[in-house]
Amino acid sequence: LDEIGDLPLALQVKLLKVIEESRFIPVGGLELKEVDVRIITATHHDLRQMVADGRFRADLYYRLNVVPIHIPALRERADEVQPLLQFYLAEFNQRYGRSLTWELEALDALTDYAWPGNIRELINLVERLVVTCIGETIELFDLPDEVRMVRHDGAGDVLLPLRKQVENLERRLIRKALVQHKTTREAAKALGLSQATLVQKKKRWEQG
Predict the structure, then answer these.
(1) Beta carbons of 148 and 109 less than 8 angstroms apart
(2) In this structure, are residues 90 and 124 in contact, taking their beta carbons and an 8 Å threshold?
(3) Range 162-190 burial, b when 16+ CB lie within 10 A, else e
(4) CA distance 198 to 99
(5) Which of 46, 36, 130 is nearest to 87 (CA)?
(6) d(Cα 136, Cα 64) in Å, to the nearest integer?
(7) What is the chain's pLDDT, residue by residue, as a tens digit (208 residues)?
(8) Which long-range contacts (CB under 8 A, 24 or more apart) does 61-69 make?
(9) Backbone region of residue 156 per phi and psi (left: phi > 0; alpha: psi in -120 to 50; beta: other values)
(10) Cα–Cα distance for residue pair 93/204, rounded to 1 Å
């Protein structure tokens, strides 16, 4: 049962009864059914505090709290971020018929990110990148602003040459235009470039 802390008090009573009696009446049924199950629950709430506040039943809490396991937030397990990114990239590559790889700088930025949404946020982000990435490598500038800003904030006073910064910004804008528009002609028109110029820049980046 995921997010047991969100269970309304009325349903908490019913769950407690099932645990204590090992039987229940299915929805739409008339007869009691015996059950022999192990219940595993998860929550991001502090259930002990919820019990103190009267928002979670104490008797249900102690029934469930037999073998508690604390799993730290993803931000506290930075060494696990890159293996998870590689695992889900392989999974979504297979699902969508892609062969994407990670740029090292992108991996470093994702490792530094705090992941407020934990593993769900990571999975959703990897899937989005696999679907929207134009080239064969997921680069720093493919990442959402909130991820890249963390990387930039940690860069201290180290600055890239202006020419390189302009090139990076240009690449990012062209990549976004290519995602938003169906053809290079439409993307070039939206950016105020000729189609030949856009295609030339794109080829140069893909070649290295």
Answers:
(1) yes
(2) no
(3) eeeeeeeeebbebbbbbeeeeebeebbee
(4) 24
(5) 130
(6) 47
(7) 999 999 999 999 999 999 999 998 888 888 889 999 999 999 988 999 999 999 999 999 999 999 999 888 888 888 899 999 999 999 999 999 999 999 888 998 999 899 999 999 999 999 999 999 888 899 888 899 888 876 655 444 445 566 766 777 787 788 778 878 878 899 889 999 898 988 888 877 766 5
(8) 63/16, 63/19, 63/20, 64/4, 64/19, 64/39
(9) left
(10) 24
DSSP letters of 139-182? -GGGS-HHHHHHHHHTTTT----HHHHHHHHHHHHHHHHHHHSS
Dihedral of the alpha carbons of 119, 123, 129, 130, in degrees to the nearest 10? 150
The neighbouring-strand residues paired with 138 are 102
Helix and strand totals (H; E) in the chain: 10, 4
103/61 Cα distance (integer angstroms): 45
**Residue 157: partners with Cβ closer than 8 Å, 6 or more residues away:** none
In CATH, which of 3.40.50.1000, 3.40.50.1100, 1.10.8.60, 1.25.40.20 is domain 73-158? 1.10.8.60
Ordered by start, the domain boundaries in the chain are 4-64, 73-158, 160-208
Under DSSP, is residue 73 helix (H, G, I), strand (E, B) or coil?
Answer: coil
